[in-house]
Structure formats: C-alpha cells, structure tokens
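From the shared-data thread, chain only:
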Amino acid sequence: MAGSFKFYVVAALVMASWVMASLVIPLSGVGSPQTAALGMEQHSVWVHGEQRYFWLYTPSHYNASQPLPVVMAVHGFRMNALMMASTTGFNKLAEQENFLVLYPDGGKHQWNGKAVANHNNDDVDYVNAILDTTASARQIDQTRLYLTGFSNGGFFSQRLACDMPGRFAAIATVGSTMGQPLSEECSTPKQTPVMLIHGTNDPVITWEGQIRRVKVFFKTSNIISVPQTLSFWQKANHCQSKPATQNLIDVKPNDGLSAEQLTFSCARPNALTLWMIHGGGHTWPGSKNDHWYDSILLGKTSHDIRASTEIWKFFQSTRMVQKD
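Structure, as tokens:
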C-alpha cells in the first residue's frame, strides 16, 4: 500500500512539473511568409469541423526569401505541445541551426498510433492540415520535412511514415517501438530513413515490447519489441542485418548509463540508426527536465548524448528523394 501511494505521489509531481512547463503565450494569427512573427506562437486549424491547435517556433534568423527545414516534434501520452518543447529543447537548437519547429497537440493528450485503442481521432488529417497551413505562412523546404516523437508520439510518428509516404524526409523516435497492427499493415512504398532511440531499462515501453505502468489507461495495447521494430525498418529500407558501425559513449562510467550507436548499411545512405541507451529509462536523453521523481517513475535519464542534437544531425544527413 505504501509503495502504491508513493508511486501516485511521484506521478502527481511529474504531471505538476509538466503542467508548469506548459503555462505560456497566447493564441495568434498564422500570418504570411513576409509578416511572420518570430519565436513561439500558437495557431489553429480546422479538421472535420473541429478546431485544433498547434505551436510553431520561428527562429530569429528567419528570412522569407530562404526556405527552411521543418522538424515536427510529437509529444507523448498525457503530455502536450509545450511540454514537448520544454523536454526536448528543440527551440534553442532551432535558433542555433535555423530551422522551424512544429509542436502538434494530441486530442485528449494522446495519439492514434495503431498501438493502443483509446480513441479514433483523425490525427493524420490534422498533421496534413498543420503542414499545409505552415507552408502558406512560412517559406519551408518541402524536401526537408522531418518528424520526431516521444513514447505515444513515437508510435504515431511511425504510423505517419506509413500513412503519409513521401511527406517526411526522415523520422526519429524516442522511447517507442511500433504497434503490432501497424507493423502488419504498413506497406512503406517509399523508403524512410529512421533513427530509433530507446533505453534498455525503459519501465513504460519495455525493450521486449510491453506497455507497463501506464497500461491501466488503455483499453487494449499491442506492440512489438525494439528488435522487431528495428527488423521492420531494416526490411523496409533494404538494410544489412548486422550494423556497419558501432560507437559506445560513456561520459560518466560510474552512473550505470552509456549510449551505443548502431548504424546500418542500407540501399540509401544514413537510412537506419539505433541508439541503445544502456540502463536508460523512459526519458529523453540529454533533457534538462531531469528530476529525482522522474527517475522513480520513468527510470534514469542518460546524459551521454543529447537526443535532440543527435536527431538533428541525423535529419541533416538526408532530404526527400525527388520523384522520378
């Protein structure tokens, strides 16, 4: 009983810290490429008669004559767009590297990633609407649209790679595998470069392919393991089964954490990378939102790498292959 009480107290603290991170900035108009407001702004789109919101970060170096790459960052279950911005630190990176960041907001703080059955929101049309609206408001490079997601957002990102082939140049997921139904029905007619980042001690989305701790929130859940997800993308991207290179990073040898990068030789360069976060939990590596109560509930956060930096480096190495 005491253990259960401690768990829920810690969960409440985590949620409270996320809520505090989300209290900012009013709704504004989208504008045009020439009158774009800089910084973080909230916008809206209409999808099947419903008004839905998203956030857009425009770096201070934005120039309407220069099309910029776009990173869409999809939050996890029970999170929201601003929590994702705070957790990942993508805005600071976008300011340094000059790219746009989109943060969608999931209906009821979750996504239909074909991994769990809780709702039937048409999230695919919502994402298309965000991209189309942003393209009318900012000068964007359509060959450099990238997608990344954490946890439930990672499941959804892989669904989008399947349901929107040719829209995103590459995807990256953190703390996510793949829904079993999606792995069976996805035809992936277009090869999609993929980076997977996952903690070997993730207590929520386990390495072996089970949902724990948050499973009580879902009616049904059916996911595959990290090795099975890797195998799916090896086949889809025509990759060799064994990694071409391995690189181990261990900044603090005594903290029980290290990061191992496995890159694979595929039909096109830089098409598949796996970061194994040895000892890592259900967290975003390198995040500054690393509190003591997070480690109790979600496991350890590795600071051997910065996930956002590694994801951006991976994205920079690829762009959409033009149609013949």
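Residues 1-29 have pLDDT under 50 and may be disordered.
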